[in-house]
Each structure stands twice: as C-alpha cells, then as structure tokens.
Amino acid sequence: MSEVESFFKSAFSVDNVIFGFDGGDLKVLLIQRGAAPFKGKWALPGDLVYPNENLETAAERVLEQLTGLRGVYLEQVKAFGAVNRHPLGRVITIAYYSLIKISDYTVTPASFAQSARWHSMSEVGELAFDHNEILDTCLAQLQTKVRNAPVGFELLPPKFTLTELQQLYEAILVTKLDKRNFRKKILTMGLLLDLNELQENVAHRPARLYQFDKEKYERFVAEGFSFGL
After folding, report:
1. Do residues 63 and 46 make contact, with C-beta atoms less than 8 angstroms apart?
2. Local confidence pLDDT in tens for the 229 residues of the chain
3. Rounded-to-integer distance, Cα 134 and Cα 223, Å
4. Are residues 65 and 131 in the same domain?
5. Residue 50 contacts residue 191 (beta carbons within 8 Å)
6. Which of these three, 113, 146, 179, is where a domain ends?
7. Residues 116 and 192 in one domain
8. Are 42 and 32 in contact, with CB atoms under 8 Å apart?
9. Which of 14, 95, 135, 224 is close enough to 77 for a disulfide, judged by CB 3.0 to 4.6 Å?
C-alpha cells in the first residue's frame, strides 16, 4: 500500500445528540447498544456513514434507524477525530444536535439499538466511546445558542407563563436564574405578547399567560440578539 493510499483507510461516522424538553427537565436521547463494541452500554444514536452517502443524509438515516425519529432538524456541531476513539480502527465522527419537545415524538428502537429512552442530563453516566465528550460539547453549543437566539417557540404550549419560560432556560443552562431579573430582561425585549389571560384550574395563584410575538421571534431568529442572563 502506497503512502497516499493509507490516507483513504479512515472511516466516518455521525453521532446525534437529541436534547428533549418535557416541560421542566432537559433530557437526552440515548440508545443501549446491542452490538459490539460496547455492547450493553448506553450511547448516542450514531453509526458509520456509507461510502456513497453525504453527512446530513447519514445523520438523518442513522437517527431514524436507531430511534424511529423522523423530520428532526439537525445542526452540525464539530468533528471528533482522536486517533484511538474507536477500538476497531480510525473513525472520525461528526456530531449533530437538536432540541425537541419530547411529547411530539415517539421513540422506537431498532437495528442494533437494544433500547432507546430519554435520560435526564443529571443522570447520564459513563457512555460508550467518547460520547460523554460529544454530549458536553453539544450542550455547551446549545447553551451558547439560547443566549443569542430565541428558543422555546416549539417547546412551550401556545400559551405559557413566565415561570414556564424561565424553567426552560434554567433546564438548558443548568442553573437557577433570578426571577425578577429574568422577567425584566425577557419583557424588555418585546418578544412576548401579554394575552390578558390567567391560568385556569390551578391549585396556586393563577399566573398571566403569554405567547411569542411571531414576527419579532422570526426576526430574532434571523438576526440574533445578546441575552445576558
């Protein structure tokens, strides 16, 4: 084998970090591997890329094959290429991530995914391969995004309280936020519409209901903003 030919002996894979929000907790979708290497270990939904397949198509295919999820918008984060990251040979993986509303999707494990389920971020243990590093990197990317673009339009009910919106941000940022400071900043942005309605059928004092101003939300998505929390 010539020196040049040796450069064509690496494999590529894709790994998907699918974050999910269930109304109060940030979770990640993991599969339990039913095949070697790392059989029985929890891992991100990932697999090798076919020789005739582009990366985006591979990410969508692998996610559907292993978890049954379709139509999920996947954003590429970065490549992970440590020489010994895969025990069977040189495999460079490209990580993708997404944030979805858990109740909108049904998880159906298949292929070598022995099972698939949502794990709270606080309960994720040691994963296969270098998947803990990939997960941490994608979480940091998500946390940066919520500070520079609106998040929540698809994750919250059509009508929501400021407490529910704050819980979403706290779940993503993994920190408690000052209630007064958060509300002041979010209301000053003009991103929300006060519906002049109160919650119904709640055991506590009913809170005011809001919804996103769709026009401003889409503008913030396109232009971004700086939301220091």
Report:
1. no
2. 667 877 778 899 999 999 999 988 999 999 999 999 999 999 999 999 999 999 999 999 999 999 999 999 999 999 999 999 999 899 999 999 999 999 999 999 999 999 999 999 999 999 999 999 999 999 999 999 988 888 888 899 999 999 999 999 999 999 999 999 999 999 998 899 999 999 888 778 899 999 999 898 888 888 877 776 6
3. 28
4. yes
5. no
6. 146
7. no
8. yes
9. 95
The structural domain count of the chain equals 2
CATH number, residue 166: 1.10.10.10
**What CA–CA distances, in Å, run from 191 to 63, 149, 213, 216?**
33, 11, 6, 6
- Domain with 194, as residue range(s), is 162-223
Q: What is the pTM of this model?
A: 0.91
User: How many Å apart are CA 55 and CA 48, to the nearest integer?
Assistant: 10
CA distance 118 to 126: 15
Terminal-to-terminal C-alpha distance of the chain: 56
Q: How far apart are CA 128 and CA 21, in angstroms?
A: 23
